[in-house]
Design a protein that fits this description.
Blueprint: E1 14-15, E2 18-19, E3 25-26, E4 33-34, E5 41-47, E6 54-58, E7 61-64, H1 68-84, H2 91-99, H3 116-127, H4 139-146, H5 150-161, E8 166-172, H6 178-183, E9 187-194, H7 197-208, E10 216-222, E11 225-230, E12 238-243, E13 254-260, H8 269-278, E14 280-290, H9 313-323, E15 326-342, E16 345-358
Parallel strand pairs: 7-12, 8-9, 8-13, 9-12, 13-14
Antiparallel strand pairs: 1-2, 3-5, 4-5, 5-6, 6-7, 10-11, 14-16, 15-16
Pfam families: Methyltransf_23
Protein name: Trm112p-like protein
Organism: Thioalbus denitrificans
Amino acid sequence: MRMELISTLTCPESRPGSPCGGPLRLERTPRPELDAAGTELREGVLRCPECGAEYPVIAGIAILLPQVQGWLRANYYYLIAGAAQAGGVGAEMTAWLEARDWHLGNRFASNYYEENRWVNIFTSTHYDTTPAGADDRSPLGRFIASQPQVFETVETMLARHLDGPVARALDVGTNVGGMAQRLGSLAASVIGIDLAYNPVLAARRIQTGHPLPQREYRRYLDGRHHELRPLPAERANTEFLVASATALPLSGRFALITALNVVDVVPDPVAFLGRLAEHLEPDGLLLITSPYSWGSDDVPIDAWVGATREAPSAEQMVRELEGLGFGILESVDHVPWVLREHQRWYRAFLNHCILARRGRN
């Protein structure tokens, strides 16, 4: 994490009605680990002087979530395994974590987003220059490869409505950072956030080269058989955090917010949209995409947006945004998003892509 980012961070810990919002300060114990230039924080602890909450920075990734203790207990082993690929966890940080018994949680998360194989699969989806389906030698694969995909579509949508680079952009649900990487040419500063540690770590290694650069990834061909593919050049203006948009630990507002395939997996989609609106500048742009793959495991049925005979999801999502004061600039439906696991296995989603402008109210 860049040291200069600390001055923009705020405490996400819950208080009645809203996050704490206090400033975060870098603690002296455990001793912060910086790069040779003193500009990159590889390891340390951020503390809120107002409520006392503490947040670790591990392998350059700050974990800024409310009730962070529960997240750490559930994800401790994913965290340590991921950090091991980026230089490991130092002795002082290990002692600090173990003193808080975060490694003794009795409920460990089972989260495929954190698994190395899936990090590589999403990396292929986000960065591969070969269209999914182009190499499987079947008519269906060739057809899939010929279709415009979500990244291509939303880049075109944004280009039509941006007069030039904006100051600040936020990518919510960034995963391995493909959208954040594209936003890097549209904004002076880009921050990507996600609830999963290992995808965010991969994004930061790919795009900033810290704490260790990642130059290639595994593109699976069949089962475990894979080839190594190169990754794009690093960017100087992207940064990544483990954080939630509903308790955003960042001061100020953004001129552009993107949230690709997130709204249908948050517990309260309408409240989520409202929080995004609060973080936008007046006249700011919001880009939402979703295949509306509602599932009661993620979203209670009563919280689904539309998905009924009377109100299909695409129509109701537009209404919800308009009710929040947004003007719809573009609405493009049935845009393919293809998740390629290997040459013989694809997951295809048809996304609804909406670009909206926040009103000045």
